[in-house]
Design a protein that fits this description.
mainly alpha; 2 strands; about 425 residues; Serine Threonine Protein Phosphatase 5, Tetratricopeptide repeat
């Protein structure tokens, strides 16, 4: 394997393992900023050594063992200056590779939930929590996060640094809280798990359209939360949403790894067990007798798709109404964009295009590639192919995901032959 191929493989492994690695190290050193630094050190060592020695059979265990050795070295160097680190060092034994393999499947998995509660502490602002989550749990770069926020990269970098310093200065505990404290932090934790799942479902950047392992971890954490807080309707709503969305994974890409859009997916291959689990979770949310929140409403929308035999037989009028309700509880230009798609399916593309054109003036969507993508799709349905081609090319220039860029450029090319 060439050096460049090894580097690409290491990058893929890092995206899969970094969250667990940082969570496990945070449990050890009780400092999320230091844990990230140690994890990054292990990555640098891997980039240097793996091209020579080959990629280990268990790369996650190798990275954890390497990072932990770095931690011990650091603690030993600092023991005179900082007694706290010495005490931590005495509690730490080096993992064998088998130990780490078991930990990655067990205890460290629970550490992810502890880290989410830690990074969702109210000492951090909402923007800081989201940025830190995308960095630590989803493995996004500062540049990628900045694009998600439509903000300057320097702004996001400062926000992340301040957030880590605040958690350290305030000595925020690495634990899952109980009672009222858990309730107070629950909505922020749900948002973090939702973001984590979405990044896996449609990757912001890179060579892959989806990151199933990230989605599976988000779903696992959601199920754990549902068991911890069974009377919280929105926890069940989020689980329902993730279960039903996960049912489509095997149809979201073709054999070449290329994206397959919802309208073109083979619904017979959707995972019926996950759909049934999702519908049951949605029913548990409804039975709690509260007004449906944003996650339960999105789950209800997904249920309309999951229960429809085909795109043509989907209840688009109901979906439009659910998006209208969602826009009231969670006002967002992205919700409006999705509502435009539903309205176009229910009442015709001209009606959807009218909403999309109004969204063109929305500052928050200025760099959002799905706006021109949706507009291009509606223009195709109206047989305005030249305008559609321009929109697809504009969307392709905005996205950072290579698979999505190829899809959009192919759609632009198709417009030339219509």
């Amino acid at each position: 394997m060439s050096s460049s191929q090894t580097h690409r493989t290491v990058d893929a492994i890092w995206r899969m393992e970094s969250a667990k690695l940082i969570a496990g190290l945070t449990r050890m050193v009780r400092d999320v900023g230091l844990a990230e630094d140690l994890a990054q050190d292990a990555l640098v060592i891997a980039l240097d050594r793996w091209p020579e020695i080959g990629i280990p059979d268990n790369p996650g265990a190798w990275l954890m063992t390497t990072a932990k050795r770095r931690a011990l070295d650091l603690l030993r160097r600092n023991k005179v200056r900082d007694q706290k680190y010495t005490e931590i060092a005495h509690q730490m034994d080096l993992y064998t590779e088998d130990d780490v393999d078991q930990a990655l499947d067990g205890e460290i998995g629970d550490d992810l939930l502890r880290m989410i509660f830690m990074t969702c502490h109210p000492v951090l602002s909402q923007d800081a929590r989201v940025a830190l989550t995308l960095r630590l749990l989803c493995g996004l770069t500062t540049d990628e996060i900045a694009r998600s926020f439509l903000a300057a990269e320097s702004t996001i970098a400062q926000r992340i640094v301040r957030a880590k310093r605040t958690l350290s200065a305030e000595k925020v505990p690495f634990e899952v809280p109980v009672g009222k404290e858990l309730q107070d932090r629950l909505s922020a934790v749900l948002e973090v798990i939702y973001l984590m799942f979405n990044e896996g479902y449609s990757a912001t950047s890179g060579d892959q359209w989806i990151r199933p392992i990230l989605c599976q971890e988000a779903l696992r954490l959601g199920r754990v939360l549902a068991a911890m807080a069974p009377q919280e309707a929105e926890v069940h709503g989020l689980v329902a949403l993730m279960e039903m969305q996960s049912s489509r994974f095997r149809t979201r890409v073709n054999v070449k790894g290329e994206p397959v859009l919802l309208m073109d997916q083979n619904r017979a291959q959707w995972d019926q067990l996950l759909i049934r689990r999702g519908l049951a979770a949605l029913e548990r949310s409804r039975k709690l007798g509260r007004t449906l929140g944003p996650y339960s409403l999105q789950a209800a929308i997904t249920a309309c798709h999951a229960q429809a035999p085909s795109t043509a037989e989907t209840d688009w009028i109901r979906i439009s109404a659910l998006y209208e309700a969602l826009s009231r509880v969670m006002p967002s230009p992205i919700v409006e964009l999705n509502r435009a798609v539903a309205i176009s399916m229910a009442f015709g593309p001209a009606f959807g295009l009218q909403i999309v054109d109004e969204l063109n003036a929305e500052p928050a969507l200025k760099g959002y590639h799905l706006l021109p993508s949706v507009r291009g799709d509606l223009l195709v349905k109206l047989k305005r192919y030249e305008e559609a081609r321009v929109e697809f090319e504009r969307a392709a220039a905005m996205t950072r995901n290579e698979r999505e860029r190829t899809l959009l450029l192919n759609r632009a090319a198709e417009c030339e032959f219509e």
